[in-house]
Predict the 3D structure of the following.
Amino acid sequence: MEEMHVLLRNKGKINPEDAGSYISAGGYEGLKKALKMTTEEIIDVVRESKLRGRGGAGFPTYKKIQFALNDAEPKYVVCNADEGEPGTNKDRILLSSDPCSIFEGMAIIGKAIGAHIGYIYMRAEYSYLVPILESALKTSREHGCLGENIMGSGFDFDIKLRSGAGAYVCGEETALFESIEGKRGEPRYRPPFPGVKGLFGKPTILNNVETLANIGPIFMNGADWFRSIGTEGSSGTKLFTVCGNVKRRGVFEFPMGINLKDLIYEVCGGLEEGRTLLAVQTGGASGAVINKDQIDVMLDIDHVSDSGGRLGCGTILVIDDSNCIVDIVRNNLDFFRDESCGKCTPCREGGTRLYELIDKLCQEKGNVKDLETIEDLAETMRLTALCGLGHSTAVPVLSSIQNFYEDYIKHIDKEGCPVCSQMGGKQA
Ligand SMILES: Cc1cc2nc3c(=O)[nH]c(=O)nc-3n(C[C@H](O)[C@H](O)[C@H](O)COP(=O)(O)O)c2cc1C
Ligand code: SF4
């Protein structure tokens, strides 16, 4: 199956450190058009494109722009390059191969809301990319595509880089603002929402790297062109990070709506010889675990959720029959309990208790009552945690109990789990 490269169109073809190279490939043409438009015209293009956020929630991008249209000054545009979801690599590919496409999207949104400063917040592990981005910023300014009076339009917009210290929760938008402000990265209570009171208490639009990288091509080629790619509810292409037990792992770009089964078996070459598929976790560690009968599904924002999965940031973990699903969920919980910031009780206490209970099952010391408590606790976290980290902790737990109930029961009754027994109940 042929990939469709919109976001990856320049990967390996241009020098990412040199804006001149990006411009020679048609870069900043979308910004040139947007600079001649009014706020309403820019919003119309984004609305008609039907672009939805690629950071996980799939929120319509034009609505965020509208939320920040108020009188408060200054305003900010923030790029979320925290990419903390385990196994996810897609934003790194864009940051390292085509950073100017991200700057272009930020500048267009800046023009729409009248922001003059943008921030790119990168996870600590991506610090090695800072020199590439600094050079791309410098050369973008030299070509008049960033800085004062961009392309003679009278509009000023520049971008600053900030690095995190290595916390998953800092990918949550309000914790990210706290971190940029030099505070401990903990989510804020909402409302107020970022469009009203975001970074430094000012109206802010925050988008994922991949969302922003789509904006330039939309303005260059038009909203109709963008909408013609993908599905009715999810236009454009999507970067999928496929990891786990497939022959060919990596980041692949396809129109939204590619079939999950085709992605696993045709694009990624299927599983190793002698192995069969046990499960797929869609959307990263915070995604749902579905079984092999549920994979004949279109990967876009709506269809995959209809079938019990979750597109999230597009990470697909393929799990073969050499694994135990309860152990996989225990691994997820180990991550979430470690990354909980501790601000709210359901997640601080619930995450650890959930881990302990699932660990007890893996050690084959659990009972049916424990399984009921696990479900109850996960549901409570889903409903009452302050931020998405706590809500997400519940997703793999509840979806795996729903789709792999027999596997859980195996850990409780006499049959036992061959994988966990072999590991002596220890985590893989
Ligand atoms: C715990 C947690 C971690 C998150 N990590 C990221 C991340 O690394 N990158 C990202 O773009 N969004 C992340 N998000 C989602 C953001 O809060 C936000 O919804 C997203 O960046 C919005 O961008 P979009 O509208 O372009 O999708 C995270 C959310 C939560 C709750
Ligand atoms: S849900 Fe977890 S990460 Fe989010 S605020 Fe509560 S304790 Fe912190």
